[in-house]
Amino acid sequence: MNRHAPTGYFLDHLWLIPLFPLATAALMLFLAGGSRSRRQICASVAVGLSFIYAVGAVFQLLATEPEHRVAQQILFEWLTPGPMQMTGGQASVCGRLGILLDPLSCVMVLLSPVWVLIHVYSVGYMAHEGGYYRFFGYMNLFMFAMLTLVLANTCCLC
Questions:
Q1: What's phi and psi for 103, nearest 5 deg?
Q2: What number of other Cβ atoms are within 10 A of residue 120's Cβ?
Q3: Which residues have CB under 8 Å from 80's CB, separation 6+?
Q4: Furthest C-alpha separation in the chain
Q5: What's the DSSP call for residue 13?
Q6: pLDDT, tens digit, for every residue of 65-74?
Q7: Does an H or E element contain 103, and which?
Q8: Which of 136, 138, 143, 84 is nearest to 111 (CA)?
Q9: Is the dihedral of CA 92, 97, 103, 108 positive or negative?
Q10: pLDDT at position 17, please?
């Protein structure tokens, strides 16, 4: 790891930002029972926690020097074939699952308050509809997918 890499509690726990909506999506979709208000609170708290962690990570990233404003965590390697013979020489290719926070992804994760407003609006909109738990479960699952897409480390060359 680079010795100039930014550190801090929120930057060390970047993986929790998309995990909060995933956990509540699983609760909504797989566990039956509970009142509507409890489900609404659970879904909204998950979105709020994601936003708090995102803001904390952004502030910790902005506290570093501009040339070192990239935080990366490799969670695990799922493919390590080693060196491969290519037409231009040898290349090493591996598949890594990681999270990357840079200035562009900071802008995108700070859009989480929009999701909070969508949750608040949806509470009233879905008040008299069936499938309340399913709607909020899918909405949090979609938020997980978007946060994972925004925070994904897409580097595949080692």
A1: -55, -35
A2: 13
A3: 94, 95
A4: 64
A5: T
A6: 888 889 988 8
A7: helix 103-109
A8: 143
A9: positive
A10: 94
